[in-house]
Amino acid sequence: MSTAGLSFTESHEWLKVEGDEALMGLTDYAQHELGDIVFVELPEEGTTVAAGDVLATVESVKSVSEVYSPVAGEVVEINGDLEDSPDLINTDAYGEGWLVKLKLADVAEIDNLMSDDEYEAHTKG
Amino acid sequence: MRANHVVACVFGWKGQALSVETGVVRTALYDRHVAADARIVDFAGYAMPIQYRGIVDEHRRVRSTAGLFDVSHMGEFFLSGSSALESLERITTNRAAALVDGRVQYSAMCYETGGFIDDLLVYRLGDSYMLVVNAANKAKDLDWVTSHLLPGTEFRDASDETALIALQGPRSEDVLAAVGAGSFSSLGYYYAARGDVAGRTALVSRTGYTGEDGFEIYCKPEDAATIWDALLDGGVPLDVEPVGLGCRDTLRLEMGYALYGNDIDDSRTPAEAGLMWITKLKKGDFIGRDAIVQQRTAGLTERLVGFELEGRGVPRHGHAIISGGETVGGVTSGTFSPSLERGIGMGYLAVGVHGPLEIGVRNRRLKAKLVDLPFYKEGSVRRA
To answer: A90: nearest CA in chain B?
Structure first.
């Protein structure tokens, strides 16, 4: 899946903006580094977060990782498929492996994030 | 995302991050791991493959067909000479005198305090004995063994001249047959024999750390790649692939096998660790015997147990074991079990506590129940 048009954080989260809402998830680079993901702990709908707050926890066989919110907002939907199929993050990180849908508190915060080219350079550096 | 890696410290990609300059040693099969796209880490000073395709995939492969492990980082010591057996009986817990030629036994070395120095395999090969020790303890073990030998015992460290490939899985016999080494099928569990594998001389034993049938193949480093390649080629119709240290840990934990550094260390004795079956108090004196006897007489205060999480979550080393709101123990090994599809772990629990238990996982308390080991009971491993 093309990553053009997505925004990225240095901590390997992606954001896909749709109006004043956005889907977010972990990048392909992140899922590859984590290995087989076995459990995902997602926030409850209605939770509000600031940029950089811990939004979710992703557990692989060998490690536990915190996932940070790229922007401030409110959790309006979580990906229920990840309960039975956490490996969707491994197989389709930008598609079916999405984690949370946020209602953005401030759309302008997107400007603080990286483009896909900038993120790619970041992971290679 | 920030990952808190439980295993090792340096993650490299295709070998680029690890080089001789960093002091990390490569085994004879390093190039094969790089070519197979392995994720390579620094493990006890060796560049070792943690995984190739994924830990869960590799774990399931070993349980269903067969996988190949490079475990050349382990240490091999030889004891020979007129007092070799006597020296060995003094420094190990199991009864080495029971070994006939070609027999192997699981054993341990302890300090005077009864605390573990290492767990190991002891092979009797003619009039010599081969000790196979953990890579992380090699220097410590060498120091200990050599300073406790009786006059008349010769010692040789053969680690650098020995590569070790572990073929593990229910199809292991078929893989050996596919490379013309089918005669090893007649080896009994925990027996060893010399012979040829893929035209190279090897010592093969029916041993392993996975709970599946399998063979551990000791050879010269210069022959390792030939044997590795032949087993993989011959194993193509049998679905054999290289598998890494990541699944080695999930496989052994499913069997309840101890890992030095996690479940056993110098602060634990064989009595607490449930390893009295390799501790032959009746064989006579050995280093650590008095302390172990004293501890058993006084009564154990903690014992190593196995537990499963009832819901979601994975227990990890260091998590608290809680009963009735009180911490009553600690997790020494924990993982997600690919076979059981739940979190499993081992840890030391106060004697007399039976449950219900909780495991303190980060800021939550997850329900757990004690289970008898092994967690996984369908393994193809041969019983003695």
So the answer is: B54
Query: Is the pLDDT reported for residue A70 higher than 50?
Result: yes
Query: Is B174 in the same domain as B248?
Result: yes
Interface residue A42 vs chain B (CB under 8 A) = no
Closest-CA distance of chain A to residue B57, Å: 9
- Residue A37 is part of a domain; what is its CATH number? 2.40.50.100
Q: How many domains does chain A have?
A: 1
The pair of structure tokens assigned to B316 is: 């990890």
Residue B276 within a domain: no
- A116-125 — which CB contacts under 8 Å span 24+ positions? A116/A3, A116/A4, A116/A5, A116/A6, A116/A8, A118/A8, A119/A3, A119/A8, A119/A27, A122/A8, A122/A10, A123/A12, A123/A27, A123/A29
Give the structural domain span for B193: 11-72+162-254
Task: Find the residue in B nearest to A85 (Cα).
Answer: B341
b/e per residue B146-156 (b: at least 16 CB within 10 A): eeebbeebebe
B15-58 pLDDT tens trace: 333 444 467 999 999 999 999 999 999 999 999 999 999 999 99
For residues B146 and B176, state if they share a domain. no
Grade residue A4 by pLDDT with cuts at 50, 70 and 90.
confident
B228-286, pLDDT tens digit by residue? 999 999 988 999 999 999 999 999 999 999 999 999 999 999 999 999 999 999 999 99
CB < 8 Å from A in window 230-269 of B: 246, 250
Contact B246 A62 (CB under 8 A): yes
Q: State the best of A32, A36, A68 to mutate against chain B, taking most chain B CBs within 10 Å.
A: A36
The residue of chain B nearest to residue A38, with distances taken between CA atoms, is: B336
Q: Are residues B30 and B40 in the same domain?
A: yes
